[in-house]
Amino acid sequence: MLFNSYPFIFLFLPVVLLGYFALGRLGNLAPVIWLALASLAFYSFSNWQFVALLVGSVAFNYGIGYLLIARKLRPPLRFAVLTAGVAGDLLLLGIFKYAGFLAANFNALFSTGITLHILLPVGISFYTFTQIAFLVDAYRGNVARYALPHYALFVTYFPHLIAGPILHHKDMIPQFERAETKRPDAHLILCGLIIFAIGLFKKTCLADGIQPLVSLAFGPNAPTFDQAWIGALAYTFQLYFDFSGYSDMAIGISLMFGIFLPLNFNSPYKARNIIDFWRRWHMTLSQFLRDYLYIPLGGNRHGRILRYVNLMITMLLGGLWHGAAWTFVAWGALHGAYLCINHAWNNFAPKAPPTLEPVARFAAFVLTFVAVVVAWVFFRADDINSAIYVLSKMADPAHLALGRGEIADLAFVAAYAALAWLAPNTQQIMGYDHANRTVGSGLSAWRLRPLFLYATAAVLAFGILGIQQHSEFIYFRF
Question: Fewest Cβ atoms nearer than 10 Å: which of 31, 107, 146, 227?
C-alpha cells in the first residue's frame, strides 16, 4: 500500500487512527498491539508473501536481544550471540538482495549458467539495519529490557517500514510505551495533516510532474548535450521531491498518532560541501553508517590515510546498501572520493581572504551540486556503460540542439531548482523539532490567518488530485 493512494488516505489511515485512540482509553497494551497489527496489515497489502519473514525477523532479533540484555552470559559467549544475530540478519539480507547479483557476476567471470530469480521484500534494508543497531547497542549495554509488543511495533511501525527513516530504539520505544494511554491531540493531528499534505503535494505534483523529463537523458533515444543535462537535472529534482515527500508524509502520519519520527531530510541541495550534504540527505542512514560502520572501523582515530580508507569502505557499502548493482557501488565510490577530497581540502587548503569568502562559498555550493548531479547519473542508470554514455553527452557541448521544447524544459527545471534552493523546508515552515517533541509553535497565530489554512487545503486537494494509479516512491526499491 502506498501513502499516495486513495485506499490509504480515505480508508486505512482513518480506521487505524480511530482504533488506536479508541483502544488508548483502556490504558494497556491494546493500542500498541493494534498499531503493530495494523503495520503488518499495511505491509501485507503489497508484500503479503513476506509477512512471515518480517515476523520471523522480529522474533529472532528480539530473542537475541533478550539474551544480550540479560547479561547472564560470559563475554566470549555474549560476543558469539551478537555475531550470530548480526550474521543472521546480514545473511537474510544477502540472500534476498544480493544473491542474484553475486550469481550474475559469478556467471560473467566463469561463464556458468546459474540463474536466480529472488523477489526482494520491500523494506528489508530498513528493518534489517534498524535491528542490527538494536543488537549492537544491546551488546554494548545501552538497551533497556523492552516488552515484545513495543519491540515489534518499533520494527514494523508502518510510517517508516517501507522507505525509512531508520529508527533507533532509544528514540522510539519510550514513545510507544507512552502510547498505552494516548489521547487524541487536536494540535498534533492538525500539524500532522498539514505536513502530510505538503509531502503528498511534493510527491504527486512535483516529483511525478517532472518524471517525464528524465527520459530525455535515460530513455531509448540518444540525448544531445542540453537534453542530457535536462534529464540528469530532472532526475536530481525528481529524487529530491520524491524522497522529501515521503519523509514529510511519514512524519505527518506519525504525528497524528502523537509519535515524533526523526528527521531524515533537511534541504540537502543547499549544502555547501559534501560533508554537509551527508548531514542533510538520508540523515538516519548517514548516522547509522557513522555509528555502526565508520567508527567501529576506526573512524579518524588512526591517522588521515586510514580515515580516508574508512570513508571509502563506508561509502562503498552505503552505495551497495541501496541496491545490488555496480551502478550503486560506483555512486558510493564517488561519494567516498568526494568526502576524502572534502576532508583533505579542509585540512590542507588555505582559507579564502575575507573579501573573497562570498565567492568561495558560492563556488563551493555550485561545485557540490554539480558533483551530486554527476553521481546521480550512476544512481539512475541501468548499468555503468549507460551512465558513462550519459556523462559523455553532458560533457560534449558541441552537440547542442536547444530548441523551443528544450528551453521550456529548462525553465521547468529552473522552477524546481528555485523551490529546492530558495524555499523554506517543511520543518522550517512547521517548526518541527524532533528532539524537543514540539511542532507548529506558530499555529495559534495561523488560526487568525484563514488564508494559510485555505492554502493548506488547496495543497492537500492538489496532492490528492495528482495521485496517479500507481506511482511508487523511488526508495521503495531499496
Answer: 107
| 324 and 449 together in one domain | yes
- The reply to whether 257 falls in a domain is yes
- Cα of first residue to Cα of last residue in the chain, in angstroms, is 16
Whether 326 and 420 map to the same domain: the answer is yes
DSSP line for 16-28: HHHHHHHHHTT-S
Provide the domain limits for residue 79.
6-184
Looking up cell 521531491 gives 241
Give the cell for residue 329.
557501488
Give the catalytic positions in this structure. Answer: 322
CA distance 413 to 238: 10
Q: How far apart are CA 238 and CA 204, in angstroms?
A: 11
Q: Are 37 and 60 in the same domain?
A: yes
d(C-alpha 28, C-alpha 177), whole Å: 10
Verify that 461 and 427 share a domain, yes or no.
yes
Answer whether 192's CB lies under 8 Å from 254's CB: yes
Computed on alpha carbons and rounded to an integer, the radius of gyration of the chain in Å comes to 23
- pLDDT digits over 13-66, tens only? 999 999 999 998 887 889 999 999 999 999 998 788 999 999 999 999 999 999
Residues 6+ apart with CB under 8 A from 227: 216, 217, 393, 401, 406
